[in-house]
Amino acid sequence: MSSKRGNKLATQETAAGRGVTPQRHAPARHGDNSMRVYDVLRQRIATRQYAPGSRLTEVDDAELQDIYELRMSLATLIGRLSPRPLSKADLAELNTVKLRLAEILASQTQPEIGEYADLCDRFFARLSNVIGNAFLRQFQDQLYTQTDRYWYGWLAKADVRQEIQYFFYEVEESMRALAVNDFDALGMIRRNHISMMLARAEGYRKPR
Fold this sequence. Notes:
mainly alpha; 9 helices
């Protein structure tokens, strides 16, 4: 597991053990425009209202929906705001991730969430190098990190092998777009997979 994610989980477990009560916040109004949502999140992160390792809980459903909608909108801008081809080193790393995902899927061993999370981080860190607009990259990176907590929460209920399969599809599709520098397609691939992931997450949260 990457050190970033490992530290987050350790902080969560420590807080739970001490009986720390998460701080409650006035919710961002659902349906507000994207920039308002970003401004609210940025303020809360900057003022440490979201402490390191804290969770976004069920009372934040509307806000989470806004965050993911913002992420989808930003993904469609990848091909419009100064995109740039990836380096050979970046493409080689993406291929390494793809090969490792194929190995995991071919194995009979139960996949580890930690390794899956690390592969996601590695892939999206390199993929972000396509983004030439510094502000777009900053927004993308911050929102990706912010939703980590939610992602971990529902993944515990998910079929991890199936989620890795979906991720493998995204990696394959992204690399095909990158092979011809079709950055508009790359952005739509990212947008569509975020949307499908959100739909699956909603299904896992419903009582069975």
